[in-house]
Amino acid sequence: xxxxxxxxxxxxxxxxxxxxxxxxxxxxxxxxxxxxxxxxxxxxxxxxxxxxxxxxxxxxxxxxxxxxxxxxxxxxxxxxxxxxxxxxxxxxxxxxxxxxxxxxxxxxxxxxxx
Amino acid sequence: xxxxxxxxxxxxxxxxxxxxxxxxxxxxxxxxxxxxxxxxxxxxxxxxxxxxxxxxxxxxxxxxxxxxxxxxxxxxxxxxxxxxxxxxxxxxxxxxxxxxxxxxxxxxxx
Lengths: 114, 110
Known about the structure:
The complex is a heterodimer of chains A (about 110) and B (about 110).
Chain A: E1 4-7, E2 10-13, E3 18-25, E4 31-37, E5 44-50, E6 53-57, E7 64-70, E8 73-79, E9 87-94, E10 104-105, E11 109-113
Parallel strand pairs in A: 2-11
Antiparallel strand pairs in A: 1-3, 3-8, 4-5, 4-9, 5-6, 7-8, 9-10, 9-11
Chain B: E1 3-5, E2 9-13, E3 18-25, E4 32-37, E5 44-49, E6 53-57, E7 60-65, E8 70-75, E9 84-91, E10 98-100, E11 104-109
Parallel strand pairs in B: 2-11
Antiparallel strand pairs in B: 1-3, 3-8, 4-5, 4-9, 6-7, 7-8, 9-10, 9-11
């Protein structure tokens, strides 16, 4: 595997379910991100992890819980979600201090909350 | 806070040149980036401007004027595969937080 991978690619869950999204980066980067992308809205930054520490929590509801066990893996734990949480969830990684700080995105998880 | 404005949609024909504008309002400025996203795909990095002027990468160029809080992405010799959404983004001073525009959907027709 190369780049940034995400699993699952598609997820349908009920409002009472608990599920987790997984992201893995194979680029040796030291920062990872979760974004939410809804139709007709800009990409919304949710969380930023740098060297496995959370450095940004962009006022995200507590029903979204991130976890970064090491610099290559990032999880987003979901519980008691709402239908308006249906969206594409994108993971990204970057190397801090790399000049342009280019972010590399995974293919995303398309989440549908019923 | 940060805000970026882009046109919602642009149409063009193959072989043409198209310019996608981006105006921004930021409390701090650390460069303007452009990303491309095909339907169902991941955003991919296209270009970055940290200083005023034009950056050229093959058929794509990006321009920045910090005094005008304005930039644009120029796509030349358009191809059907260029049909995608294009996002401008500015880096917030706090770490590497990127704030994205709403995106411009480019439709290239034969």
